[in-house]
Amino acid sequence: MDTQNDAGTMTRTATGPAAPGASPAAAGDVPRADVRTDLSTRQAPSKWVIVVDRDLPVGRQVNAAACMAAAVGRALPHLIGPDAVDASGQTHPGLPWAGCSVLATEADALAALRAKAATRPDVLVVDMPLAAQRARVYDGYREQVAQEESSALGYCAVSLVGPRNRVDRLVGRLPLL
């Protein structure tokens, strides 16, 4: 729901349904009071990052980041702000109000980051196993993943959404991609 504060700034509050199978307090779910479209992304209480394998070819890095964005948008649709309308009346679809930093690290550190983040109940973890870019058929991807333990999967990218301080502690000082 969009509301207007005393300063005339629009603020979006989360009122939509939770992701399929998720409870209202799902990992990484942004509390309603934290949805603040009137703040700088550096002031937002929630943080969203995508961390990609820095050694992948550029095209595969971009593909992985785009896939992470789609999956997070599905899981947490209230991370997307209201549409913007320009002076000509053209509508531009909403973008993430919290922003999204795309960071890079080596493959081993990416797997360790995913494992550590998965232990944090207040952080949403979305990942893209290497099998996703190897398979040309989605069911084949799912079959490949089903044959491996989580600890044996390699990752193209991992996305984290949660309280700013917790996400910052997980990603440390990883560089921007």
Provide structural commentary:
It is globular and about 50 Å long. It is α+β, with helices and mostly antiparallel strands and 177 residues long. Strand 4 and strand 5 form a beta hairpin. The protein has helices at 58-75, 107-117, 131-134, 138-146, 164-171; strands at residues 2-4, 10-12, 46-53, 84-85, 91-92, 101-105, 124-129, 155-163. The strands form three sheets. It has a four-stranded mixed sheet with strand order 6-3-8-7, with helices on both faces. It has a two-stranded antiparallel sheet with strand order 1-2.
What's the helical proportion of residues? 25-40%
Using only C-alpha atoms, the radius of gyration works out to 17 Å
**H/E element order:** EEEHEEEHEHHEH
Q: What is the molecular shape?
A: globular
In terms of DSSP E residues, the strand content is 15-25%
Count of helix runs: 5
Short description:
This protein has helices at residues 58-75, 107-117, 131-134, 138-146, 164-171, and strands at residues 2-4, 10-12, 46-53, 84-85, 91-92, 101-105, 124-129, 155-163.
Defining traits:
disordered N terminus; 177 residues; single chain; 5 helices; 4-stranded mixed sheet; alpha+beta
What topology does this entry show?
Blueprint: E1 2-4, E2 10-12, E3 46-53, H1 58-75, E4 84-85, E5 91-92, E6 101-105, H2 107-117, E7 124-129, H3 131-134, H4 138-146, E8 155-163, H5 164-171
Parallel strand pairs: 3-6
Antiparallel strand pairs: 1-2, 3-8, 4-5, 7-8
